[in-house]
Design brief:
Blueprint: H1 3-26, H2 30-38, H3 41-47, H4 52-67, H5 72-88, H6 99-103, H7 112-123, H8 139-158, H9 164-192, H10 196-228
Helix pairs in contact: 1-8, 3-4, 4-10, 8-9, 9-10
Length: 229
């Protein structure tokens, strides 16, 4: 695969993963809402994809953002309340954002799945910046890890190196972790959210991960063929 194209693909993926990581960790602030309403990020993301969930999710978010462009302060407050009800609390969470809750029989935090994610980070020399404050398997942290892998791979390519190991890590993390629980989480978000922003975000997230997993697989095959040839 041509070096410039590979680098741009990795950088584009880092941008999407970083955006999703920020939304799931913090919720959308007013600055982000203003940028999303005024920029073409969601439109371009939808235009570049044939995945129905991804395109429909982007458009759902766009429509609601456009409708609230003139009252972003009030809209931000509405979204923050929805975010807290879904992911933070207090009280019952409609969509708990931790892998262990969805993948352990007892639906508890800090199960063996949390430790498996921690070990995956460590295998790349990383430790969660929120260790002992937030379980390592929070969706925002898992997405941030994917963004980091994309950034490191792009740097490797730009330096003339091979990014196969980093791409293999992304493939494995998608298969062994994100794809194992995010579809169920996003179904819960779609069911329980009161705003189209979060209903759309759920579809965008599910569609993005499905599309990205397929693309990573194809690029890895191409890189491996080039190395053999």
């Amino acid at each position: 695969m041509e070096k410039q194209l590979l680098s741009e693909w990795l950088q584009g993926r880092e941008l999407v993963y970083s955006f999703l990581a920020r939304v799931y960790q913090e919720g959308p602030n007013q600055e982000m809402l203003g940028a999303l309403a005024g920029e073409q990020f969601l439109a371009e993301l939808a235009a570049d994809s044939q995945n129905e969930d991804l395109t429909a999710g982007c458009r759902q978010m766009q429509v609601e953002l456009a409708a609230h462009r003139e009252d972003l302060e009030a809209y931000h407050q509405e979204l923050q309340e929805d975010y807290n009800r879904l992911f933070v609390g207090p009280g019952h969470l409609e969509a708990p954002p931790w892998e262990s809750v969805y993948r352990s029989q007892e639906h508890l935090l800090f199960s063996e799945k949390t430790l498996a994610v921690r070990e995956f980070y460590r295998s790349f020399g990383l430790e969660s910046k929120k260790k002992n404050q937030e379980p390592d398997d929070h969706l925002g942290l898992e997405l941030e890890f994917m963004a980091w892998l994309c950034r490191e791979a792009a740097a490797k390519v730009q330096d003339g190196g091979v990014c196969e190991k980093l791409l293999t890590g992304q493939k494995r993390f998608l298969q062994e972790h994100l794809e194992q629980w995010v579809p169920a989480l996003t179904a819960d978000i779609q069911r329980a959210a009161r705003t189209d922003f979060f209903r759309g975000l759920a579809r965008l997230t599910r569609g993005w991960l499905a599309t990205d997993a397929s693309e990573v697989e194809m690029v890895l095959v191409e890189i491996q063929k080039e190395q053999k040839g």
